[in-house]
Amino acid sequence: MSENTAGPVVRFRALDGRERTYDFSPLPCPPLHAPLATALEARLAPDTGSLRTLAAADTYFGTIRRFLAFLGMQDQPLTCLDDLRPGHLYTYRDVEGATRSAAGIGRELAQLCRLLQDAPYGSLHSSVWDLIKASRKITGPQPPQNRVQLYSHREYTALLQTARTDAAETVARLAASEELLAALRTAPSTLSEEDQDTARLLDVMDRTGRIPHVEGRRTQDTARLLFLTLADAAPLFVLALALGRLRANETTLLPTTHTVTGDGAVVVRLDEHMNMKTGTAPVRWEVRGEGHDPLDCVGDFYLLLHRLTARSRRLSGSPQLWNLWTGRSANLSGHTPLSRHTVAPLLNTWAHRHHLTADDGNPLTVQMPRLRTTARAQAHG
Known about the structure:
The chain has 381 residues and is mainly alpha-helical. Helix content is 50%, strand content 8%. It has 15 helices and 8 strands. The strands form 3 sheets. The chain has a 3-stranded antiparallel β-sheet, with helices on one face. It has a 3-stranded antiparallel β-sheet with strand order 4-5-6, covered by helices on one side. A two-stranded antiparallel ribbon has the order 7-8. Helix 1 runs antiparallel to helix 2 (54-72), helix 2 packs parallel to helix 14 (340-353) and helix 3 packs antiparallel against helix 4.
């Protein structure tokens, strides 16, 4: 293992001679990078490790990447690996299990437990060490596949009402910034001195995509003046699932290419690998247009998202509809496509922040397949 200026790098040479480099620097939760890199290196060691192929090594690094993405969305950030608790592992199982098969999440958790067992001695809390030594407590036995349980009318209504309220605030915030930016460029004398300062800040972000430092303000709060961020994603994604009724992966990977027809509809063609049952058959959504709330109709909502994500798409260079500012990206712009693995923990963190409860009084878990199935049932009811 070597260190670059941002984080550890693990290098691996497979039995067939091919090589791969695993760079931890773009991943969230930097305090956990070093111990997890050490664990991965132990798994990849040519003499004592258990991994011999690039495919196997990629799988383990993917597990680390997804687990760190989950931990990075928690309200209380981890300052070291010793802060990890059994509850984090159980919650990760539940969050990932909402979008993956029982067998798939079982394999992932087994790999995660093996990785943690290879972490530096003494770096884990004793409760976690006891748990990962008996990983069947987390990984199985896996329950049989059952029909997806629907949300009750109360639960579903609370989800949608809360999502619409948050989404409306997001739309209003960005609309106000658009007005300031337009005024700066067309009639700057109409703006107060304070509004001119804000508008000039917006102008820099619009032209460069970069977020200037503002004394006393967090970078993500400055970014939210003009861009969608991870803090905005959960309520918008809840509405996208409920209105569009597509699978979670189809919703995440919606393309920007579309056609607005003369009879008031938007036509979007899903990629074949996302929609195996219908191939490349397009989806057709009604557009109600001006005078109607875009948060109530799927066609208008798609076109709204298209506008809200336009700047981040331009800066990330991605054709995917869901693009936003995260502060991390492959091209260093800070703008990147939204991934399904990022969405899942965001949804439950959002529901927890709003104190949404299930009918039994426990915190409401936002499960993407359950939300979609409930929306489909409501539509056909």
